[in-house]
From TrEMBL:
Keywords: 3Fe-4S, Cytoplasm, DNA-directed RNA polymerase, Iron, Iron-sulfur, Metal-binding, Nucleotidyltransferase, Transcription, Transferase. It is an enzyme of class 2 (transferase). It comes from candidate division MSBL1 archaeon SCGC-AAA259E17. This is DNA-directed RNA polymerase subunit Rpo3. Its EC number is 2.7.7.6. Binds 1 [3Fe-4S] cluster. Residues 190-219 form the 4Fe-4S ferredoxin-type domain. Part of the RNA polymerase complex. The keyword ATP-binding does not apply. It is found in: Cytoplasm. GO terms for cellular component: cytoplasm; DNA-directed RNA polymerase complex.
Amino acid sequence: MELEIREIGDENLRFFISGVTPAFVNSIRRTILQEVPVMAVDEVEFAENDSVMGDEVIAHRLGQMPLTTPDGYLLPSECDCREGRCSNCSVDLTLEAEGPTVARAGDMDSSDPDVAPVQPDAPVVRLEEGQKVKLTAIVRLGFGEDHANWQPAIASYKYLPVIEIDQDAREDWDECVDACPKNILEVEDGELVVTDREECTLCKACAEACPDAIEVSGDPSKFIFKIESTGCMSPERILKKSIEVLKDKCDQFSEGVERL
Ligand SMILES: [Zn+2]
């Protein structure tokens, strides 16, 4: 197996992985989407809401807000408090605002400053003169498989594109260059070249326009894997956590097998 990092940033991670099967990379993708726990608003208690937006609409909006997720919190199901309401397994975000104003995510006070909205400018509710809102949003760890609110990232992969060009097949490449919707084909010194193979979506439009000269396929043993974090944590941490989850499952499985 070979791994090569192609891009690494605060929210995006892109790498090549080769020598593995589609089932293997798909298990990582699915684990990221469904089984890496992150913090999200789980419940909202309203003390006051005179705005034109209903409690449910505001609660739904808060639930979808990505929050920074530090290490150390317990899942409500694993906490001794059994209610998901102590400081080991929950965080309170409180909002108190009076119109005229637009209350934003960043206006909420967190009981743990390490758990905060990723986008503080995101509007929560618009309040007109005399309208008030007072609420407590209860944040807990959860899983993407239970609700998309807890999905830490978008994870995807594709086969590494293989674009074979017969340079002797033609002299005029304009038709082929124009066919590519990603604009990654160019002519250099009379030859057709691919400027950025990773951008190829395997749509095969170029091969359809120039079947005499171009063949496009995906290499089923090499993948481009991409993780786009919601901002809840870094994409490397999401990837590492997904691998921990998979490892734990394998350990449990092998313990079960030992007992046979
Ligand atoms: Zn607790």
